[in-house]
TrEMBL record:
NCBIfam families: FMN_reduc_SsuE
Protein source organism: Nonomuraea antimicrobica
Entry keyword tRNA processing: no
Name of this protein: NADPH-dependent FMN reductase
Family matches, as Pfam families: FMN_red (PF03358)
Amino acid sequence: MTVLFISGSPSAGSRTGRLVDHLAGRLDRPATVLRLRDLPAEPLLHGDVTHPELARAARLVRAAEVIVVATPIYKAAYTGLLKSFLDVLPQGAFTGKSVVPIATGGTVAHLLAVDYALRPVLSVLGARHVTRGLFVLDTQIEPLAEELLPRIDALLEEVPLAEVA
Ligand SMILES: Cc1cc2nc3c(=O)[nH]c(=O)nc-3n(C[C@H](O)[C@H](O)[C@H](O)COP(=O)(O)O)c2cc1C
């Protein structure tokens, strides 16, 4: 089972990125982490899918059977960086894949953004199965709040990722 984590934060020292690293570390198998902030901005914004780094990122998506899409909530939705990336993927890029939506945010007021903003775009890309979402407050990430562990493990077990570590 090939697992790809996509981190949609543009920030250096991203808390979403740290959460992703933690989740990847809980799996009993290697997983690839794609940090969208590392992609070249101009080809991304211009939709230049021939750029080698964008082509490589698209190959990682194609090869993955499970994709964990993690984004900070910015202005009550997922980030523009994540949208830019999803926009350059081909139609149906998530077809046949299980997708796990995850968001971090500063206030629980926006926890439903996982469902009203992120989930529809994952479905439109053809995801076979979009799991329950996970919303994590930024204050719960560093250090990772103990109470999150059962929620994280329950979520990971919802997709065919085999045993968590
Ligand atoms: C530009 C910007 C907009 C934000 N807007 C929201 C928001 O609307 N709702 C919310 O809950 N948190 C908001 N936040 C807080 C971030 O979602 C939160 O701190 C997140 O964990 C940051 O993740 P990162 O460090 O990976 O970028 C915002 C942060 C920034 C920088």
